[in-house]
Amino acid sequence: MGQNDYVVIRAKEDGVHVIGLTRGNDTKFHHSEKLDEGEVMIAQFTEHTSAMKIRGKAEIQTAFGIVESDAKK
């Protein structure tokens, strides 16, 4: 994924956590959102965000396809 790629995250249960991780020598958490079932978030990779962590049941749509997350909260 490039710097300006987007992902769409759709929560399949209440309490799905979306956590943004920083770029650089030390990877750190820099932003967190909590989604409830049915809520959708459109997120973008930027010069500050290099990765995202999704905790909970969610559908993640990317340029590469759809991924299902079923991690425990």
Radius of gyration: 12 Å
What would CATH call the homologous superfamily? TRAP-like
Order of helices and strands: EEEEEEE
Tell the overall outline. Answer: globular
**What oligomeric state do the depicted chains represent?**
single chain
How many separate helices? Answer: 0
Helical amount among residues, as a percent range?
A: under 10%
CATH architecture: Sandwich
In this structure, how is the largest beta sheet organized? Answer: 4 strands, antiparallel
The number of distinct structural domains comes to 1
Terminal Cα separation, in Å? 26 Å
Total beta strands: 7
Sequence of strands across the biggest β-sheet:
4-1-6-7
CATH topology: Immunoglobulin-like
CATH class call: Mainly Beta
Strand content: over 45%
Show unreliable segments.
none
Average the pLDDT over all residues and give the rounded result.
Answer: 87
Helix-strand category? mainly beta
Describe this structure in words.
The N and C termini lie far apart (26 Å). The radius of gyration is 12 Å and the shape is globular. Helices cover 0% and strands 60% of the residues. Strand 2 (16-22) and strand 3 (29-35) form a beta hairpin. A 4-stranded antiparallel sheet has the order 4-1-6-7, with no helix packed on it. The protein has a 3-stranded antiparallel sheet with strand order 3-2-5, with no helix packed on it. It has strands spanning 6-11, 16-22, 29-35, 40-44, 49-55, 57-62, 65-70. The protein has 73 residues and is mainly β. The protein has a single domain (6-70), classed as Sandwich (Immunoglobulin-like).
